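Quick one, T. Sequence first:
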Amino acid sequence: MSTDTPPELTEIATGLSFPEGPVALEDGSLLFVQIKTGLLSLVRPDGTVSTVAELGGGPNSVAIGPDGAAYVCNNGGFIWSEMGDWTLPMDLLTGASEPPGFGGGWIERVDLETGESTVLYRECHGRPLRGPNDLVFDGRGGLWFTDFGKTGE
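Structure tokens:
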């Protein structure tokens, strides 16, 4: 492929609310989170979007665990601002990202058959999670995640 010819892109879904953390599934579907609406969603190859689970907060990434369930980093939510066509996860006046009543983030497990969600962790070694961001499983089934944090007013 020539480096001066961009690849062809095909849009398969629209109307999403800050999608992140896509996981390609064996059937050709894509599992992902929508941070702004707090959803774990699925888009099929034909572009059909469905809700797997209503998680609340701000689900930021998803990975499939060794048990076949979905594991989600949930940052606890953001303050959202609009700037023209852009949606930003922060208050443009103060720079704060914590929503009112922010209680921290968490790691959760979602049963893909039922959509049932269980919070697994809200802290690590006694320190509250502030903004869990991305996660991955290693070859032995260990869960690793990052915590980006939050900014208050």
